[in-house]
Design brief:
The protein has a single domain, classed as Rossmann fold, CATH 3.40.50. About 30% of the residues lie in helices and about 30% in strands. The protein has six helices and 13 strands. The strands form three sheets. Strands 1, 4, 5, 6, 7, 8, 9, 10 and 11 form a nine-stranded mixed sheet that branches. A hairpin with a 4-residue loop joins strand 2 and strand 3. It is globular. The termini are far apart. The structure holds 1-O-pyrophosphono-5-O-phosphono-alpha-D-ribofuranose and uracil.
Length: about 220
């Protein structure tokens, strides 16, 4: 069910997601376990976040007879992790969507101003790309932006703007922990983007970290602190 005061947010409170999220938040969780948990949570979230994907009719032969089944048009599915921490979610989601294409957006948040700077973008189906494969254009793709943390929302909204500039029209945002500030910023800037989160936390501290949160997702994922 959408959140009562944040209509763009869906909190996925499945018991397995909540169990794994609690382990993830624990400061005693090792880098190895953190990486594994991010991937598992992402996979469980992907199951929920793909519930309403359109399917198309296909003819197949069972061992007994010809029938019409339904399949997701997987050529159109596109994962876009926000570097770095979003990379930790790619394998988990890809377990469920193995033929999805993967784009990348690099956004770094300035530690003082908390404002985002985009430093990299490679989007499948972007007509402005050299050597482009335009068999399915961004306009026709279903995009899933992946980033464990939605804090001020600066990085997320910058990523959505990048995708829309490439032509994207259908975008979902999957994060593990969201702060109300980030969800509202997305609602103001991009009300068409549905956010799927495993938790909506209390807010941000003076340094822009989500509280209670889980700390710096990129550092915990890659062992850089
Ligand atoms: C983190 C996180 C998000 C962003 C969220 O990345 O993974 O991308 O901060 O904060 P915001 O909502 O206030 O923009 P960071 O910029 O620290 O980069 P990293 O993943 O390379 O560590
Ligand atoms: N980025 C993180 O990795 N963690 C936070 O709490 C906020 C931004």
């Amino acid at each position: 069910m959408p959140h009562p005061s944040l209509p763009n947010l869906l909190v996925l409170d499945h018991p397995l997601i909540q169990h794994k999220l609690t382990l993830l938040r624990d400061r005693a969780t090792s880098t190895r376990d953190f990486k594994h948990l991010v991937s598992e949570i992402a996979m469980l979230m992907a199951y929920e976040a793909t519930k309403d994907l359109p399917t198309e009719a296909v003819q197949i032969d069972t061992p007994l007879e010809r029938m019409q089944g339904r399949m997701v048009s997987d050529k159109k599915l596109t994962l876009v992790p926000i570097l770095r921490a979003g990379l930790g979610m790619v394998d988990g989601v890809s377990e469920l969507l193995p033929t999805a294409r993967v784009g990348h957006i690099g956004v770094a948040r300035d530690e003082t101003s908390l404002e985002p700077t985009r430093y990299y973008a490679k989007i499948p189906g972007d007509p402005s790309e050299p050597n482009k494969d335009l068999s399915v254009r961004a306009t026709d793709r279903d995009f899933f932006i992946l980033d464990p943390m939605l804090a001020t929302g600066g990085s997320a909204t910058a990523a959505v703007t990048t995708l829309k500039t490439a032509g994207a029209r259908r975008i979902r945002f999957l994060c593990i922990v969201a702060a109300p500030e980030g969800v509202r910023r997305m609602l103001d800037g991009h009300p068409d983007v549905r956010i799927y989160a495993a938790a909506l936390d209390r807010g941000l501290n003076a340094q822009g970290y989500i509280v209670p949160g889980l700390g710096d997702a990129g550092d915990r994922l890659f062992g850089t602190r």
